[in-house]
Amino acid sequence: MSLLNDALRAAEERQNKPVVAGAYTGQPVAPDVASKTPVTILLMVALALISGAGAWWLLSGHSDEPVAVAAGDTVAPIPEAQEITETAAQQPVIVEQAPVETAAGTEVSMPDSASAVEVVLVAEFAPELSEPRNVEPVADQKEPKVIQTAETQPQPPVREQSTESRAQDASVKQQRETPEAVDLRTSLELARSLASGRNDEAERTLTELTTRQTAPRSREIFAREMLVLDRPGRALEWLPDSVTNEHANLRLLKARAQLALGDLNLAIATLQARVPPVAEQVEYRITLATLLQQAGAADESAGHWSELIAHDDSQGTWWLGLAIALETGGRNRSALQAYTQAVAMPGMSASLADYARQRISVLQAES
């Protein structure tokens, strides 16, 4: 190390000597390459010596294990100390500093002519700055696959229902419709046709329906309209016994048609065939009681009026009908009470009320 210090000191003293400028000739002065060659060699030897000493110090001071040299790396041979001493003694050292940027980014003062040699030394002893060896390139990452969820998956196309299928569904729906529902729907159609005067069309519709079922509601609509139009015979055509026996409304219409044709007894027989309860058929009972009164069956008529009053005793006309039936049957005292009750009921017409008062005066005079 003392030799290196002496060489560096001598180079510094030489650098500080004044330089005599030569005459300007207008031509560039070529550098004295031969004079700087020993300096370059000396610098290389010095750097190698320093590197070897540093490596020896690191190996001996911090680890007893030898340093493993990577495959392919080369280490510059360290010259013997004797050769360094002889070379330094034979040639004076002249060092001119020039800034050179190393791999670590620091600047080192070195002779201009030794720049190329310095770069080689730095490349040998400094870590490589190129790409690392034996490094496999990272595989390109692929785009993540899009998982198609149930919501984004295409739904199966909805198959349109064909005309034949719709017709079949309509047929099934019509078949599932009960006879009662068909009868009700047809009766409404008949009522609209009759109201607009299309009687023949309504009768054709009724004819077509009765080929499939009894259609009591549709028969009732048509027969009632015929009675309003004073066509009892045409009404009776749609009121056969096979149908009227099971339906009180049709029996009542049939009895009215028979009465309109002048057959009182036949009408009473039709009504008496099956007498419904008062709560179910009030009008049926009123008609039967009235016809029995006309036919002279006072007691039977009084019995039906009594049942009607038992159902609702607030009807003055019912009391009046009972009073007439009782008086006709010879039960004047009971008839007087019924007349008196009829006059006391609100809603009596003036003519009926006058008739009841007259009969009260007569019965009171006879008693």
Task: Please give a quick description of this structure.
Helix content is 61%, strand content 2%. It is mainly alpha-helical and 367 residues long.
Task: Report what the structure shows.
This protein is mainly alpha-helical and 367 residues long. It has three domains: 2-16 and 31-125, no CATH class; 174-274, Alpha Horseshoe (Serine Threonine Protein Phosphatase 5, Tetratricopeptide repeat), CATH 1.25.40; 278-367, Alpha Horseshoe (Serine Threonine Protein Phosphatase 5, Tetratricopeptide repeat). It has 17 helices and two strands. The chain has helices spanning 2-16, 33-62, 81-90, 115-125, 163-176, 179-195, 199-210, 216-228, 232-236, 241-244, 248-260, 264-272, 282-294, 298-311, 316-328, 332-344, 350-366; strands at 99-101, 107-109. Strands 1-2 form a two-stranded antiparallel sheet. β1 (99-101) and β2 (107-109) form a beta hairpin. α13 runs antiparallel to α14 (298-311).
Care to count the β-strands?
A: 2
Helix content: 55-70%
Distance between the termini: 174 Å
Q: Classify the secondary structure makeup into a structural class.
A: mainly alpha
Which stretches are poorly predicted, pLDDT < 50 over at least 5 residues? Answer: 18-31, 62-152
User: What's the main sheet like?
Assistant: 2 strands, antiparallel
Count of helical stretches:
17
Shape: rod-shaped
In terms of DSSP E residues, the strand content is under 5%
Q: Using the CA coordinates, give the radius of gyration.
A: 69 Å
Overall pLDDT score: 74
The tally of structural domains comes to 3
Spatial order of the strands in the main sheet?
Answer: 1-2
Write the H/E string, N to C. HHHEEHHHHHHHHHHHHHH
